[in-house]
Specification:
Blueprint: H1 3-22, H2 32-39, E1 44-46, E2 54-55, E3 61-63, E4 75-80, E5 83-88, E6 93-94, H3 97-104, E7 110-113, E8 116-118, E9 122-124, E10 130-132, E11 141-143, E12 150-152, E13 162-165, E14 169-171, E15 178-181, E16 184-186, E17 194-195, E18 202-209, E19 212-214, E20 222-224, E21 228-235, E22 238-240, E23 247-249, E24 252-259, E25 262-264, E26 271-273, E27 281-283, E28 286-288, E29 291-293, E30 299-302, E31 311-318, E32 321-323, E33 331-336, E34 358-363, E35 366-370, E36 375-379, E37 391-397, E38 400-403, E39 412-414, E40 419-423, E41 428-432, E42 438-441, E43 448-449, E44 454-457
Parallel strand pairs: 2-5, 3-6, 3-7, 7-10, 8-13, 9-14, 10-15, 13-16, 14-17, 15-18, 16-19, 17-20, 18-21, 19-22, 20-23, 21-24, 22-25, 23-26, 24-27, 24-28, 25-29, 26-30, 27-31, 28-31, 29-32, 30-33, 31-34, 32-35, 33-36, 34-37, 35-38, 36-39, 37-40, 38-41, 39-43, 40-44
Antiparallel strand pairs: 1-4, 4-5, 11-12, 41-42
Length: about 475
């Protein structure tokens, strides 16, 4: 390196360090509004030096695949909707996420991902990491032509998306409070997923907001069937045309929330809790206010395991729209275990039951265009429950079950291995006619496939 270039590099690095520490050298002090402006604005790398640009504020690390071959200690430039900013490669700008973590990684750091495709495996060893894609804070879904269709938000320009492709992200005991916001995920290589729970470890708080997960062929996309995960929140996302399981539980999962998402054209299970180990349990979990459109499978909570260790506690499946779903699996929601419930959705304490027990509240959902042979709610024991006396109380209330054609069977199915009570009151059973009207069917015994030891309560019909 020449003496001049070396001095220039030292000067640039010193300038950037000064800027990062004080927020005041080449520019005035950065405040929260400066940082938020760049975090929530899409950017693309500028290929050549435009000859001008504001120094990027401290508090954010910028990443663009376009900078992979740019020398360290040189200025790189970013276009934020017409505003040009500059940063120093190797200091607060990097060509790879892994380089940013290795070189500048600190707890609670904010990483802004620019337009482009990121294909790299990561092990997260820091708490509080926040990965902001180009569309952080922008819900990818907007209402479509009907109640069960959500269109892609036109604000999201595919050419500016931050795409995480064929990447394996692994959580560790040190990776708590992780945020991924505003990216697109496309994974077709086996094993390339988000391992959010690791055997023998506890991971706390993962926020996956405003993302698009499209065309993934691996299963699962999110893996939590090992270790312990506390506080997993998947909200305001768009899951389309994925062929494998999207979310796989099986370890000790507490406070897992999948709310306000849109699912369309997926052929894998949307939310599975299967093949659990001896410590497998779910507590305070929610699948609510989602729209599920033309998916061949639904939700499967299957606790058939030789360890017999699973519990499903305080599960809430509330306020969802399931349209033309379940044709492959022949059910939409399956609970293969004992089920119990909150007396009301707002209750703080569940009704007691024998251990192992489940407290599930399936309420205010719309099951529409159900195909012949599909059971919306299937409660069965199977496997290790055979021959055991398991008392359960299932609450399936205030739902609308609307078949595509007249069908008077299989609204709710309960296997002969379960003994208890199903509260199926205040539901509407009927057929959705082509003109949009609904033919209401009064509940009859033929609508419920149950055994003699299970009591069905249908004292009222939702009007």
């Amino acid at each position: 390196m020449s003496k001049t270039k070396k001095l220039t590099s030292i000067f640039l690095a010193a300038v950037m360090i000064c800027s990062l520490l004080s927020g005041f050298c080449l520019t005035s002090a950065a405040d929260a509004s400066d940082v938020d402006k760049l975090i929530y604005t899409p950017f693309s790398a500028v290929a050549t030096n435009p000859g001008y640009g504001s120094t990027a504020p401290s508090g954010v690390i910028f990443v663009s695949p376009s900078w992979k071959n740019v020398d360290d200690d040189t200025w790189v430039y970013m276009n934020f909707n017409g505003e040009i900013y500059k940063a120093i490669k190797g200091v607060n700008a990097f060509g790879k996420i892994s380089d940013a973590l290795d070189t500048a990684g600190v707890a609670n750091m904010k990483i802004k991902l620019g337009a482009g495709t990121y294909t790299e495996d990561l092990t997260l060893n820091l708490n509080g990491l926040k990965f902001y894609g180009n569309y952080a804070g922008v819900n990818p879904n907007v209402m479509g032509a009907n109640a069960y269709t959500m269109n892609l938000n036109p604000e999201r320009n595919p050419e500016l998306e931050s795409i995480i492709k064929d990447s394996h992200w692994t959580w560790t005991i040190n990776s708590n409070n992780i945020t991924i916001d505003g990216v697109t995920v496309q994974t077709t290589v086996s094993g390339k997923c988000f391992d959010i729970a690791v055997s023998g470890q506890t991971s706390e708080y993962f926020y996956f907001y405003n993302n698009i997960v499209n065309g993934c062929t691996i299963s699962p996309v999110f893996n939590a069937n090992r270790g312990t995960s506390v506080g997993t929140y998947l909200k305001y996302n768009r899951f389309t045309k994925n062929t494998g399981t999207i979310f796989q539980g099986g370890g000790a999962m507490n406070d897992t929330v999948m709310d306000n998402n849109y699912f369309e054209g997926n052929s894998g299970i949307l939310y599975a809790f299967t093949s659990c180990g001896a410590n497998g349990q779910e507590t305070l979990n929610s699948f609510s206010n989602n729209i599920v459109n033309n998916c061949t499978k639904g939700l499967n909570f299957d606790y058939n395991n030789s360890n017999f260790g699973a519990n499903l506690d305080y599960k809430r499946i509330v306020g969802n729209m399931f349209y033309n779903t379940g044709s492959d699996s022949k059910y939409i929601i399956r609970g293969n275990y004992t089920l119990e419930y909150f007396k009301n959705v707002d209750d703080e304490a569940p009704v007691d039951c024998n251990d192992p027990g489940c407290k599930t509240f399936i309420s205010d959902n719309i099951f529409q265009n159900i195909q012949t042979g599909v059971t919306p709610v299937k409660l069965d024991g199977g496997g290790n429950l055979t021959g055991r006396t398991v008392n359960f109380v299932a609450s399936v209330v205030n739902n609308k079950f609307l078949y595509a054609v007249s069908n008077t069977a299989n609204r709710i199915a309960v296997a002969s291995t379960l003994i208890g009570t199903v509260d199926a009151s205040h539901n509407l059973f009927g057929t959705a006619n082509a003109n949009g009207t609904v033919k209401v069917d009064n509940p009859t015994d033929t609508m419920f496939n149950v055994n003699d030891d299970t009591r069905i309560i249908t004292i009222a019909v939702l009007s």
